[in-house]
Amino acid sequence: MAAAHIPNLLTSYNARPLGRGRGRGGHGNLHSEEREEDLDTTRALKDKIVQGTDNDANVSRMSAVEVGYLHDPYARLFAAVGSQRRFPIINRGPDSVLIKMLYILANNPFIPGTYVRTRAIDKLVEEFLYSQGSTRKQIICLGAGSDTRYFRLMSREQPPNVLYHELDFPINTALKIATIQGAPSLRIHIDDPLFVLSTDTELHAPDYHIHAIDLRTLDRAYGQPVGPGKLSHVDPALPTLLISECCLTYLAPDTADAVIKHFMGNFSPTTPAALILYEPINPFDSFGKVMIANLAARGIVMQTIQKYHSLDAQKERLWSYGFIDGGGAEDVDFLYQEWVDEREKKRIGRLEMLDEVEELNLLAKHYCVAWGFREGKITQDAAGKAEERVEAKGENEETSIWDRWRALPGTIEAPPVRDNSQSSLTGRNWG
Questions:
Q1: How crowded is residue 278: how many other Cβ atoms within 10 Å of its Cβ?
Q2: What is the model's pTM?
Q3: Contact yes or no for 254/306 (Cβ under 8 A)
């Protein structure tokens, strides 16, 4: 599962179940076996649509690379089909503003799905990996698809010391592994020994692991009984960053919550841990409703958007998962204004003519990046050693793995406190 260039903000509005005898005028006396078969068919079709969003993300990313917004020498290697240049819309004709914005969403590589999202998440990842020198860290990327972040990191002059995991449906992992095996420019960044399962759906190397798994079955992975199953090669003691770019949003809210709690339950209490989310928000205003209605034909339901519909809701979500020591949630407009420096803004401003600035700004209010972290519980002995390290450090040296995140605009350190009388979150700098 990967973020599509058209974020699919669907609910079950007026949706008829797929399968025989399910629509208007269908038969009401199907045998239980037939009903189960219909349900299985429906699930398979929905899964296939979600799995296919990786190609959407690839096309959008390739467009952004070709125009010059992003630098990614590996994106083309994963392009299953030829990339399609996505031009900015020209303001013509009598179409409504909302319909034009939907067209922009589908055809402009600058908007939230690609450029700003990539820049923001790359920044969070880099600040995590390069904090506290060469301390080894771990990344677990949910619904990674054809994401190239591992290879971009490893191609640096000073690659990070990281144990990197990617999780996705077997059909997507098989395609990625085949691409890696056939591309020397990718293979060179994976240390030996490299082992690929006989099914060609999993790859394991010293620092890089591709896991074939349906996240809905995570608790049952690698053995029974139900409970925190253990993915192979995940180190529960390493400082760990979980990443979900429009992945968990495809799951039912309870299932999405269970995925994160699964990992948090597997980590040692002393393990520093963090989560980055990229998800749609604001489905209840005029644009959100139109977008939901217009994208319903694609057959994908972004199920978490109803529960985690706002920046405040996303912040409270992070707190509920246990990321209690700091974090934030900001829309893409904020991230562009505050996290992209003026020199970079001038560079991308010269790439293409954008006529629909106001519309793009509105779109950017409907997508967010949320990030949260916990320091990890410290034993009395460890606390004493940490205090000694603080005293030995200079003023400008990092005392926490999250110091760089704390310095980012939008990061706060107070947990959300719900004010029931106002049905909103309050607290220092929240909201």
A1: 26
A2: 0.80
A3: no
Backbone angles phi, psi at 159, to 5 degrees: -65, 150
Q: How far apart are CA 200 and CA 183, in angstroms?
A: 16
Residue holding tokens 């004709």? 93
| Residues comprising the chain, all counted | 431
Kindly report, residue by residue over 242-284, the tens digit of the pLDDT. 999 989 998 999 999 999 999 999 898 899 999 999 998 999 9
The two structure tokens encoding residue 278:
């990229």
**Residue 80 — left, alpha, or beta (φ > 0 → left; ψ -120 to 50 → alpha)?**
alpha
- Which residue do the tokens 């060609």 mark? 200
